[in-house]
Design goal:
The chain is an alpha+beta fold. It is built from 3 helices and 5 strands, in the order H-E-E-H-E-E-E-H. The chain binds zinc ion.
């Protein structure tokens, strides 16, 4: 088939961006759920050392892994809009759109890269509207 190489090339690029978008959106949805968990923990005035069950924020839509972090540890992840908490080894599901920045016994902190980072920052509920 003539011309299919060109079409594939274009689709390939598009698909790449779509994966980045999906990775970031999925993670952002879990992040919103975790923000509510964090708020609930705060309103119950739980000790900041107490481990709170958060949802893994990896790119796998099927993932339901629970990751336990203290309020303080969670806040440390949240200081950067492109950073997400993942269960150990779950960064693989981002298929190259995230890199590990820190690893702990209970969880991993990953940072979104390029397109995925942009989408993640846009969707951060804590980000102010750009002036
Ligand atoms: Zn996961």
């Amino acid at each position: 088939m003539s011309g299919s190489g060109y079409v594939l090339g274009v689709l390939g690029k598009k698909q790449h961006d779509a994966i980045a978008e999906r990775v970031a959106r999925n993670d952002a949805a879990f992040r919103e759920a975790n923000e509510r968990i964090r708020d609930a923990a705060r309103s119950m005035e739980l000790d900041d050392d107490l481990l709170i069950p958060f949802i893994c924020e990896c790119a796998d839509v099927e993932c339901t892994e629970i990751v336990k972090l203290s309020g303080e540890e969670y806040e440390a992840v949240r200081t950067d809009p492109t950073r997400f908490l993942n269960a150990r080894n779950h960064e693989m599901s981002a298929r190259g759109w995230a890199r590990v920045v820190d690893e702990f016994d209970r969880y991993t902190i990953v940072e979104k890269v390029e397109d995925a980072a942009e989408v993640a920052a846009e969707l951060d509920p804590r980000q102010e509207e750009p002036a």
